[in-house]
Write a structure and sequence with these properties.
Homodimer. Heterotetramer of two Top6A and two Top6B chains. It is built from 13 helices and 17 strands. The chain is of the alpha/beta class and 367 residues long. It folds into 2 domains: 139 residues, Winged helix-like DNA-binding domain superfamily/Winged helix DNA-binding domain (Arc Repressor Mutant, subunit A, Orthogonal Bundle), CATH 1.10.10; 216 residues, Dna Topoisomerase Vi A Subunit, Chain: A, domain 2. Helix 3 crosses helix 4 and helix 11 runs antiparallel to helix 12.
């Protein structure tokens, strides 16, 4: 059974989940061995869609079949999980991914319980793919990501206590507005921002806010908090698509940070089934660039063997096969150095907000 086999029309997430379970019963009634097909979630089955500029799953599938004991257990766990999620939606409640893992220990069959949280997380992803819904539609939450927004944006948020309007500068403290698990519940009311600056580290985000960068340049500062959570990528995409705001991504100058940019712009292997929902292909990288390390003589650390391997891998990665990225990566491999955002402070605490970012933004025709 694949997503194409399910005819649920425009039904909600609960109906889609129950349609999956119904397929199992129909297979039993017709004498077929119950099975579930999901795309193989490996790097070898990820394709770069040049039309949409995002990562998507290829044609290879894995089959969860009751022909084997392990396959039957996976379908059993899927059925129990569907039952739990359907009841949760019926009661208009929510839970975290961590709670689902622990809650399974109360299920009446030992075989239905999860061995670890990775297993339960993967099953929720399977259900997303085959149902065409998202875990947010299931009312499933990750642990708090803590990612925030700061900037000239008035929004309306739907909460359990009703609607509330929040201005992401005037109505929040220095910490900013915390991005909710499901940003699609937010309505944008008024926006005076000119662009989005998505920032990797908390230290740099705090420096920008303390220096008033968001106010001076009408910027929406999004704290990515390292590898960004789905909610962070979703609201960044909405800010671009719905408010027509250019998106820039400001990270450390190392290969792992370039992949953070890649996940914002093009999606990731783990969530390739949601790339068109989460990714912002128009996002542009603003730094720290390898050429910045040379030009500004930034404090650095030497590249490790894993850094070098990652950079060489990125040279073969379709996301980075542009003249710009090939030039930057080759330069970094040549100088054998990497640098952090905070290294810009070697030129003074105001250098990043008074000089570096304004010059980069002007060169990108954003300021």
């Amino acid at each position: 059974m694949s997503a194409d086999d399910i005819n649920y029309g425009e039904g909600d997430a609960r109906e889609r989940l129950l349609a999956l379970a119904e397929q199992f019963y129909e297979q039993f009634e017709t004498g077929d061995v119950p099975q579930l097909q999901v795309p193989t979630r490996t790097k070898s089955n990820i394709e770069y869609d040049e039309d949409s500029d995002v990562w998507v799953y290829g044609d290879r599938h894995s089959t969860r079949s009751a022909k084997t004991v392990s396959g039957a257990q996976k379908l059993l766990k899927a059925t129990y999980t569907i039952d739990f999620l359907a009841q949760q939606l019926d009661e208009d409640r929510s839970s975290t991914l961590r709670e689902l893992y622990y809650l399974s220990e109360s299920w009446d069959l030992d075989e239905a319980q999860f061995n670890d949280q990775d297993e339960s997380n993967q099953l929720v992803e399977d259900l997303e793919i085959v149902s065409g819904a998202t875990r947010e539609d299931f009312h499933m939450r990750p642990e708090e990501s803590g990612a925030t927004l700061m900037g000239p944006l008035l929004l309306r948020e739907q909460t359990r206590r009703g609607e509330r309007e929040i201005h992401c500068q005037e109505d929040v403290g220095e910490g900013g507005y915390q991005i909710p698990n499901n940003p699609d519940q937010i309505e944008f009311l008024e926006c005076d921002a000119d662009f989005v600056l998505a920032v990797e580290t908390g230290g740099m985000r705090d420096r920008l806010v303390e220096n008033g960068f968001d106010e001076e340049h009408n910027a929406m500062v999004v704290h990515l908090k390292g590898q960004p959570a789905r909610a962070t990528r979703r609201i960044t995409k909405r800010l671009h698509d719905e408010l027509d705001l250019p998106v820039t991504v400001f990270t450390d100058g190392d290969p792992w940070s370039y992949r953070i940019y890649g996940s914002v712009a093009y999606g990731s292997i783990k969530s390739a089934h949601l790339s068109e929902y989460l990714a912002t292909p128009q996002a542009r990288f603003i730094g720290v660039q390898p050429e910045d390390i040379v030009e500004y003589d930034l404090p650095t650390d030497p590249l490790s063997d894993s850094d070098i391997n990652a950079l060489e891998s990125e040279l073969e990665d379709p996301r980075f096969q542009t003249d710009y990225w090939e030039e930057q990566i080759e330069l970094q491999l040549d100088i054998e150095k990497k640098s952090e955002q905070q290294a810009l402070a070697s030129h003074g605490l105001d250098f990043v907000t008074d000089t570096y970012l304004p010059e980069r933004l002007e060169a990108m025709d954003i300021l």
